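User: I'm writing a tutorial on reading structure tokens. Could you give me a worked example: one chain, its sequence, then its tokens, then a sentence or two explaining what the tokens reveal?
Assistant: Sure. Here is the example chain.
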Amino acid sequence: MSQPDRFEVDPAGGTVRIDGREADSSSIDWDIPTRGTVFGTLLNYRGALAALGSAVDAAPYEAPPRAPVLYIKPANTWAAFGEQVALPPAVAAVEIGAALGIVIGATAHRVAEGEALDCIAGYTIVNDICEPHANFHRPAIRERCRDGFCPIGPWVIARHEVPKPDALRLRVLVNGKLAMENTTANLIRPVARLVADVTEFMTLSAGDVLLAGVPENAPHARAGDRVRIEIEDVGALENALIAERRS
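And here are its predicted structure tokens:
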């Protein structure tokens, strides 16, 4: 079953209502729900920054970040709900990055924090997959930008349907077993402040997706594993990891 542009969603139950019929999300042939630029945010969870310990004050960092630390997940990394993610032979395991995706609804430039939510169309779920690495000083292009390393979806929940984006429970399940649990209440920069701080130095456009960040202790997964990310009031994103087949 293909999906129209708009439909009723039950995020908790994982069902959608299309043309008066209810269907399970797994029965839908999902596409990526937005086509703007996807920006990741590093070290925006208190635990993720704390995990650096004293290293944050040593070279090359020399201090905690004073502004959002961003990177881009380019189009080759995007994958839809249910799409298989192929791991290259050299990648034994990956980190599963559960992230709230903030979908921009209108051009945002130097937006005040008190007005930032007005620029948001809604929220989605993003799996910011990456190869494990320890250095945050240089952009981890190789580790973060492999094909399929950014599943997105399955849908965008309208902003007014998520009244408390800074108090959402996140869970990661690997093969049905709970592997991580956290909450957006632990964000260093809550959603509105993050949008305000980012748009202070760059413009976000309608359709862009700004990731709120990835919590500490991201669980690892390997080829053959099935990964599910759940975000309260938004829904669940599922993808299977497979070994890359070489022709």
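What the tokens reveal: The domain at 31-243 is CATH 3.90.850.10 (Fumarylacetoacetate hydrolase; domain 2). The first strand starts at residue 8 and ends at 10.
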